[in-house]
Queue: 3 jobs
Job 1
Amino acid sequence: QVQLVESGGGLVQAGDSLRLSCAASGRTFSMAWFRQAPGKEREFVAGVNRSGGITYYADSVKGRFTISRDNVKITVSLQMNSLKPEDTAVYYCAAGRNSGGRNTYEYNYWGQGTQVTVSS
């Protein structure tokens, strides 16, 4: 069983930046960030493969968010720039034993979530 702990959420203004971090208690293959806004389904934000050499993003965040991982510290980070009010959500770190993807069912472990609120 892998435990994931997120940190770095908060309240910012539109146009600001924020960096989320997630620490894993054990080795994982794929890692990703998802988010869930009130009344909406959880959606994919960004993912990274085991080596960190392949990253992929939702169209809504491409060019603004950057995902990265450190396999020594077993962490994954999400640098969020040019934040918009529509980025407001609870952000979840996810990790999987397989190749990952853009769907929630492709991940085996989840963090507790961290709130990101962007004011206009």
Job 2
Amino acid sequence: QVQLVESGGGLVQAGESLRLSCAASGTSFSVNAMGWYRQAPGNQRELVATITSGHSTNYVDAVKGRFTISRDNAKNTVYLQMNSLKPEDTAVYYCNAQIFTTGSGWKYYWGQGTQVTVSS
């Protein structure tokens, strides 16, 4: 069984920074692409950033130049450094990962979500 556990959310003021972490845990698994999504109240869940196992990255236009996604393959952990936060970044942030296990093959897993609130 594989789990994604997130940490690092919180309440900050506009212009401040936060760093989110998400670690995959379990037995006998391999991780491919990882990413972060977010969902604001009343909105659909949207992609924020993705990173491949080879560290190629992709960002939604709204966060380019402010957010940085990175990963530590040895720790099966993905990070999201969020700088110059804006009130419109307020949302629940979810970690997502493509993970292989012998029992289930390749599947996408989700973390439990972590709240990020940016006050003006």
Job 3
Amino acid sequence: QVQLVESGGGLVQAGGSLRLSCAASGSIFSINNMGWYRQAPGKQRELVATYTSGGRTNYADSVKGRFTISRDVPKNTMYLQMNSLKPDDTAVYYCNAQGVHTPRYRSLEVWGQGTLVTVSS
């Protein structure tokens, strides 16, 4: 069974930084795309950033220039460096993996359980 485990969330003051990590575990041959999503209270889940297996990145306009996504493909891990945090960044951040190839499945989509980021003003 494939699992994604996020860590690194917490409480930070506006202007501060946090680094989120996502580790995939289980029998995994490969993962195509990985990404970070977030869901603020009362709002829909939204894309934050994605990182393809080919190394291409994509960011939501609201985080461009402040957040950096990175990925260690052989280790099936992903990171999100968040700088210049704003209260509007407060949300539960979820790790997502698409195109997960396992011994049993050719293309799974997996979500992590989420990690809470709270930015105080």
